[in-house]
């Protein structure tokens, strides 16, 4: 007999009184493959035996066919998936397929990071794991790391971090930590896509005013993703725009901020770009806005007319 439901947090999960957690979406898995599906090969590699976490590596198939000694180094994309810190993984069809398209179009190496998720492992576990994965990836910068694909093909002079939603949030914090800890080689750029930044109060008169919607987002953060946050949604990890953090220490050369006009996070994303431009950080900030689209439209409706346009922009950011 099925146990009773303790709480329900749609559309993400149910928590049962016996402690069982049922994720309602983002659980499907597609296997990695050394067959050149869409001209890209992939494989999974454990980077954290302690937490049983892997990265999924993607490589253009033609790179593996180069003659010995004829290896051409490729840009390296580190990708951090979204899903409200609760659902999804690098192995889900939506992320596997999207990374495949990026790698094919940009002719780059990609490393998609798995991290521990709430509520079993609440924030800051996702941030700690993402940084751990970045350190593991950068252990290959001298060409003698544990994974041959990264050693042979990744150009550490052209490293990019990208993420959407919660992954966009994490990407910002990874670039900040890279700056503070002086990660070498330096990250070339980060793409912060529809970032999940929030706060207790609206950032301006155009931000979400609806109390039910604001409290719904607060509930996801305070009850599931980060129940240990002292300041709730004003936790500096979530309230990036309202925090006292000094953006001038951002550890990369350029930032692409992508927002969608019908996304609940749009005003936060635009405010983030404005704060970054005023921070004294010496890099370049580019803002891309699709006014008629919603949150993560390029992933949820990849056949929409604006999805290929955004993919093109992201590819240009990586290879430009």
UniProtKB/TrEMBL annotation:
Q: Name one Pfam family in it.
A: Abhydrolase_3
InterPro entries for this protein: AB_hydrolase_3, AB_hydrolase_fold, Carboxylest/Gibb_receptor
The signal peptide stretch is none
GO MF terms on file?
carboxylic ester hydrolase activity
Segments passing through the bilayer: none
Q: What domain of life is recorded for the organism?
A: Eukaryota
**Which portions of this protein are annotated as coiled-coil regions?**
none
Q: Where is the Alpha/beta hydrolase fold-3 domain?
A: 77-298
The text of the family note is: Belongs to the 'GDXG' lipolytic enzyme family.
Give the protein's recorded name.
Alpha/beta hydrolase fold-3 domain-containing protein
| Organism of this sequence | Microthlaspi erraticum
